[in-house]
User: Fold these one by one.
Assistant:
Number 1:
Amino acid sequence: MESKATAGNSVRHGRLAAWAWSALLLAILAFLVIYPVMMLLLGTLTDSNPVTDGYAAMHLSLGNFFTVLTNPNVHEILGNSLLACAGGTVFAVLIGLFFAWIVVRTNTPWKGLIAATGMLPLFVPPLVAGVAWSILGSPKTGLINTFLAKAGIDWRINLYSMPGIIFVFGMYYAPYVYMFTASALRNMDPSLEEAAEISGAGPVRTLFTVTFPLILPAIISGMLLSFVVMLGIYGIPAVLGAPANISVLTTYIFALTSWAPPRYSTAAAVAMILMVVTGILVYLQQKVISGRSFTTVAGKAFRPRALNLGPWRFLTLGLAIVYLIIVVVLPTLALLVAAFRKFLFIRDIPSLFDAKQYSLLHFDRLFSNPATLTSIINTMKVGVITAMIGGVLAFAIGYTTVRSNAPGRRVIDMIATVPVAIPGLVIGVAYLWAWIGLPGGFYGTIWILALAFVARFLPDTVKALSTSLMQIHRELEEAAWICGRGTLSTIATIMLPLARPGVIAAMTLLFVLAIRELGSSLFLYSSSTMVMAVQLLGYYEGGNVSVTAAFSLVQMVILGVLIGITNRLSRGATGGVGRAG
Amino acid sequence: MSANLAIANLRKVFATGKPAVDDVSFTVEAGEIVVLLGPSGCGKTTTLRCVAGLEHPTDGTIHIGDTLVSAPARGLLVPPRARNVGMVFQSYAVWPHMTVRQNVAYPLKGRGLTSDEAARKVDGALDLVDLAQYADRPVVQLSGGQMQRVALARSMVYEPRLLLLDEPLSNLDAQLRLRLRDDLRRIIKAAGLTALYVTHDQLEAVVLGDRIGVMQNGKLLQMATPEQVYNRPADLFVASFTGASNFMAGKVKARDGEWGTVELAGGHTITAWFATGLAAGDAVTIAIRPENIRLEAAEAQNRYTVDVVSQRFQGVQTAYELQLGSTTIEALATGTTMRHPAGSSVTINIPPEICWAYPAA
């Protein structure tokens, strides 16, 4: 009888522990995600300043939000954003789809290499891409225009323009469309195309009447995703749009908070618009993915048919090389030339190859500014803190949602996914609203940056970890329970050791995402917590192109090394790195 | 140390659909091996997992020895770790980040043993499954059969009150399955363990089990010795699941206790063993295992001359299709020669004791 009573109690204790655990996770998620979003909502409904007035003095009214909504400036800026992203998306779809077809379905030479290097743009921070293209394509001093002038061609390009933004957007975010469409093409049953050809359709007609319609969900999905990412990007429109007075939602939000006095409530309202548009698009994308996109995909693996292009395969190879030159080679050369050349002015072509013109001068200047090293150290600190907190939290959430039957695990999973639909900049504004007016000095510390990053990248980390947890057979865990171990002991001795590669990969991924994040940092840094990405923006706005280029290269090298490590630790993490935009 | 297992009125209803386990009751005596047999989805694995504590039953009680481990009506549910049972999983579930010895030693931690005692027990368990020479290998270097034996050693090393085995051989190739099948019974019996074993393979059930429980749609249809299950299947499903493949429709002419005569659809009369609940005039289905039909026999009862429709050579046996009245039945004749070409006539005999009548389905 004694043992029965104990057993009964242990069940009740287990239930209680499960409830307490779920409550704890929900509290953490509420603190990280819901509270800042609620504060952002409050911010949109007020016209008070949380710094000077405090939170108590808010008078809430929908009127404030309507004032912003009806402001013609906001209309123009929203229009700019939609135009830039729509143009960029169309461009990205054309490029991405074309390369997906080349790599998966043709016998173009070196297609493995094309596929691998074609993904590189995803890893370039947008601000660095913007800087590189301003060096190449500014209307007066751009390297390309210099060359055109030397070559006697009476035509100039101007990337400080809406077409310039669209061009760079399309070039750099084509890999998103590529990722979705290439895998759809790879998974498509080739007999569907063979049936079309047996019915008398030529290869081109088959492509447009069978192949592309069948992978339409993948195309739309990649399209919506690249649109969403472009919408949240700050670096490219900041660099290319500002000289031409073209504002988009992201640059406008930041501008609002840097005016004197800062217009925090207007920024919150515009951020809310950005979040709503993003949310709708993400929702649509999820619907498309869960809809009919996998109906053509059978469980078994097909060997995709490779179309023999004959001599045309050298044309497709040529186009691929042109693309790689534009997105990889030219920007890298531009940064190298700008960073290592004493003077960016290029008198003639031979002087470009004159060794005497090159030195480490700009790197010396870069590192003689103590702010540079401080920002690198700060970035590393934030990265480590983010990876630690985020890794532990994501493991806890992943384990709870994938492996436990704790109450409320659906809600936990849902809240942890919410940040997918919140651009980095909006998270920044939300955290600003949530913390700036609170006493205790939390705002302006490294921790606020780390917490914002943890929240921002929670969906990516949870997804990565859940995947690796799901790959661990349930019976491995059950065997430990049967052997007499409790939940915590089982996690420590079985789940953690088995999931270790996944955990390490997720934490490294989080580290990489955190150190390249600009959007949310913009609103949360202080002079003592300056991070690399913000410092780079500072150098750019300070007007020294060569130091900016040098710092860009330093960041690219740091990122390259870290991404190399991440890829060694886990394959397939690129999607996560990409979303950071 | 080995305890008996008593399951009473066990029910398990998942969130959707009909019950996975529906009012199942049976006992396993201490030291006995009981096999639950049935097609996939019949509820046998769910029953086993309820005993392990991995699944939470909806209703009913489970006793292991004198301890009540599961009684949902009273809110009582002992977690798996406190039930002191051993379990061998379908996927082996040996931990790939450990060596053979670490796997087997794992359950001994926290049981108040000195390291010497623990090492002795591990060595004993490894000897029992004949893996002593592999003790310090990482388990990932072992073959499937060896992993299965690691899992077995791990589940027995702490002398559990009850051993549960969930289709432990289904992931092995046919040859290995045959060998391990015999080994398993020897090892379990040598350790004197009470065991509940789940499988969909009837041969495995016959070789391993002291008793077999046949399940379908969550219900336990029959619980009896292998010999009984094979020769007195409780109903048509048990008969067909254990290998009866000839079915003939007919009508009861007369019944005399366990036996009776049936008029078949084609006009023949056949004497058969009668399941419960049949009376004269009832529609019945006769079930016969093909290997029980004797060709060219001389018994008086149930003797017919039939036409051979076809013969198929199957190596050590030949399968014949025979026309009995309006039904085509299948018969097996052992031996490596084919003796009855299609079109010829043959006399067959169906002894009444292996001819079973059930209410027509």
Note: The CA atoms of residues 49 and 55 of chain B lie 5 Å apart.
Number 2:
Amino acid sequence: MLSCHQATRLASEAQERPLTFKEKVSLKIHTMMCAGCRNFETSMNTLRKAMQGFASGNYDSPDNKDNDQQ
Amino acid sequence: MTGSTSQAEGKQLDGASQLNDADYLETLRQQMLKFANLQISDTHLAEDAVQEALIGALKKADSFGGRSAFKTWVFAILKNKIADVLRKRQRLAEVSELMGSDEDDEALSSLFDKRGHWNPEDKPNRWGDPEDSFKQQQFWVVFETCLNNLPGNQAKVFMMREYIGLNTDEICKEVDLSVSNLHVMLHRARLKLQKCLEIKWYDGGKHA
């Protein structure tokens, strides 16, 4: 059984590489029972999406607001 | 009041005026330098990259309607310049320097108990609708604050991975880290970001 520390590590590594079958199963079993790690795993996807939005500058920055007032 | 407002707006109306506003340009240059220094860790190369990006963007300044478009454009160019520098250069860094300090480890292990399970108060909660957060300007202010709070080396590899978009091999080569050390650092960075966003946005400051 994985600890939460190990489970979050796998959830993070899943953003870098495909997990092995064994890793996937261990993580799945852990997150089925652990809401904290399940939430952490979901937030990894949110974090990546947020970074993509941030990197493309595709968000409503204070500068945009200035422009809207023109 | 009306007069001063229209004057201020007038300054932003055409892209060419970016060139004439020294204060604005200097602020922008400082932001770019801070970002480039974090990624490249070589003041000289960072300044070159920033200068090239600024020149490139100012050449086309006329085609931008406002400052936000200009800023997005200039940072997009800077990102590419930095990626070029990083890909070309083989910089050797001490692994110990990059792995961060021991205090850093302690701060992180405080999230978990001795058996590696979440401390009750640190257990991640379910976040609200993320797509909805992205539409709120205040979210991005919080997000940037959390990014800025990451320790330098974690910020560096995290931004290489998620902002510049380099893959694991490219980052490991650039900063002379093993794949496993890189994964440890990215894991730490994500734990910190998760915690920071949860405290500052999803749990607390949401209605700020």
Note: Chain A has a mean pLDDT of 83.
